Amino acid sequence: MQEQLHEDLDTLLAFFLEQVANPPDTFAYSSGLIASPSFFSVKALQTLVSNPLLSPAWIFLKNGRQPVSLEEHYLYKLVQSKNLAFMDKQIINQELSKGAALVLEGIDILDPDINAFSARLDDALPCSLTNCVAFFSQSGSEAYEGHVDADDVLVVQISGEKLWHIFARQQRRYAGTDRLTREQLGPEVKELRMRAGDALYVRAGVPHLCHTPGDHSLHLAFDLIDSTPNPKQITDEANRIYEYASEDPYVPAAKVMDKYIELLKSPEFQNSLKVGTQNVKEGAKNFRRSIGRASQVTALSKYL
Fold first, then answer.
1. Start-end of H helices in 191-266
2. Rounded CA gap, 67 and 62, in Å?
3. Measured between alpha carbons, how far apart are the two ends of the chain, in Å?
4. Burial degree of 76 (CB within 10 A; 0-12, 13-18, 19+)
5. What is the pTM of this model?
């Protein structure tokens, strides 16, 4: 049974489903989709970042062009021969006070409502396990430079304003995706000023560059990760099978390739890919349920 969503997230889900049904070539934008976002806020972000158990892996902090290391502020207290880790957040306070940008990963792990929404996004895609990331920036300090994502991204502006420069779609890729120069970004096709409640759907391979025109900006990005078996996983399995059904020795390389391609196209291998993809999808669903239970302890309620 699906969990009931916050009304803001229901609205955002409807926008997302429209894009899945009719994918835009480059991007889709909805101004004022949510009248006044209440499912998340700067206050909610501050509460999540204040969690003493977060490790540096959850947070990226950048002031100007310089990333701020958090490792030396990750400490532990020895209790009963166990290291109980925590992070001293003073460095975060200091850098934010000086105008730093902050990225908090794993919002879907930390917020049950957003996890429930992410489950709906996963359900609408062939094979996906969505990530939700919070981006907070201040004037003159952005977490990321110009870049391109390998998967589609759903964005909702929570607070403040963010200026998006969107460029012509390029070949989807996993390498050479970040720190793109103006030349690498290519021709600009649109400039958007995202305000609280606006939504944006950006296709994989679309370069973008963002600036914060006002005093601050907070948006959530849902990375719609494609978990379908990739070429490496596919060829690893094909190589394993080929070891038991190889071409004759001393034949030309082209004949070896013919044998290998025949294996890849065989009904048995194609079916194994379908089964493998379904297994990944089911595994993602179960994993999403585990995430939902990470912040749900109810057995003590009878004593409350």
1. 231-242, 253-265
2. 4
3. 27
4. exposed
5. 0.95
CB 86 within 8 A of CB 52: yes
d(CA 13, CA 3): 13
208: its two tokens: 């973008």
Q: Are 276 and 241 in contact (CB under 8 A)?
A: no
262-279 in b/e form (b: 16+ CB < 10 A) is ebeeeeeeeebbeebeee
Specify the DSSP class assigned to residue 106. Answer: -
- Which letter does DSSP use for residue 114 in this model? H
Report the candidate in 78, 131, 68 with the shortest Cα–Cα distance to residue 100: 68
Mapped onto helix, strand or coil, the DSSP state of residue 164 is strand
pLDDT by residue for the chain (304 residues), tens digit each?
688 999 999 999 999 999 999 999 999 999 999 999 999 999 999 999 999 999 999 999 999 889 999 999 999 999 999 999 999 999 999 999 999 999 999 999 999 999 999 999 999 999 999 999 999 999 989 999 999 999 999 999 999 999 999 999 999 999 999 999 999 999 999 999 999 999 999 999 999 999 999 999 999 999 999 999 999 999 999 999 999 999 999 999 999 999 999 999 999 999 999 999 999 999 999 999 999 999 989 999 999 9
Query: Coil, strand or helix: which one is 194?
Result: strand
Q: In a 3-state reduction of DSSP, which class is residue 128? A: strand
Phi/psi at 86 (nearest 5 deg)?
A: -155, 165
CB 29 within 8 A of CB 193: no
Instruction: Give the whole-angstrom CA distance, residue 2 versus residue 100.
Output: 38
Its sign, for the CA torsion 178, 114, 141, 62, is negative
Closest CA to 106 of 150, 55, 41, 66: 55
Residues β-bridged to residue 239: none
The number of helix segments (H) and strand segments (E) in the chain equals 9, 12
Other beta carbons within 10 angstroms of residue 253's beta carbon come to 8
